[in-house]
Hints:
Blueprint: E1 11-13, H1 22-31, E2 36-38, E3 42-43, H2 44-49, H3 52-56, E4 65-70, H4 74-87, E5 91-96, H5 101-105, H6 116-129, E6 134-138, E7 141-142, H7 147-161, E8 165-169, E9 172-173, H8 180-183, H9 191-200, E10 205-209, H10 215-221, E11 227-230, H11 232-236, H12 244-248, H13 258-274, H14 279-283, H15 296-306, H16 315-325
Parallel strand pairs: 1-2, 1-11, 2-4, 3-4, 4-5, 5-6, 6-8, 7-9, 8-10, 10-11
Helix pairs in contact: 1-13, 4-6, 6-7, 15-16
Amino acid sequence: MNRPDKISRRFCVAPMLDCTDRHERYLARLMSQHAVLYTEMVTTGAILFGDKARFLDFNSSEHPVALQLGGSDPDAMTRCSEIAQQWGYDEVNINVGCPSDRVQSGSFGACLMQSPDIVAENVKQMQAAVDIPVTVKCRIGVDDQKPREALWSLVGASAEAGCKTFLVHARMAWLKGLSPKENRDVPPLDYQLVYDLKADFPELEIVINGGINTLAQCHEHLAHVDGVMMGREAYSNPYILAQVDQELYDESSKPVSRDDVLEAYIKYADQQIAAGARLNHLSKHVVGLYHGEPRSRLWRRHISENAHKPGSGTQVLRDANLAMASI
């Protein structure tokens, strides 16, 4: 799939650390041709001083695919944006939502909700340097901020600097007292606030994120905003992506079957293992492929018991599939 002329963010798969690596994104693309895929957050330091290929390589079938950047220094962020464009990414996304200790110590991620001027300066410099879109993924506020003031301030400043697309996780981030995992679930969702944001900034593209678990919920949100972003459900139950093109992009084709997805992924996994990848790094993404199906517990158990063994190959996945059918 070639780089698209225009990205339709009607449905996006959220960037998730330790989840949305290039193998997971390849799997997702086997099921949906239209969903916009996001990398795990990659810091500017990793790109500028680390192994670029390790952090940036992706399969050409992944388009449209966006690189999510973690950082706050405009010069470093701009250089990384230029590298992302050269590498072939369709979008660069600024992380203004991650609440982990790591980003707090580096003064980026959700901390930047408190510094809309810094985010705007990053947007301005980055967008001036590249032709691909520079977007912002944020929370509705952090700690004791008032969400309507914090979110409107951030969006207003970044929009004036040239950002046209905002992906909003409809929760506060509590930097004091909650772990990153708790920050995904404990702060209450405020979808109406994001709807109001769209109403006040109708010229901007607003994508809503947080607690979205079904395609029916996606339809409900799309009555108020431009796009939806699904995270943990899309990872733990990946086959939900097989209905995205038909449900949200009006495709007339039939969804691909689970078994066909598995067969295509096994072919890909064989190539990756031959190139040095380990099965357990590949198999973790398909553990949820048969979520909700009869005897899927046998599928999961066989993979968990065998994929980590030295020298394991894709026969483990075939045997896991046979285990479900053997009873």
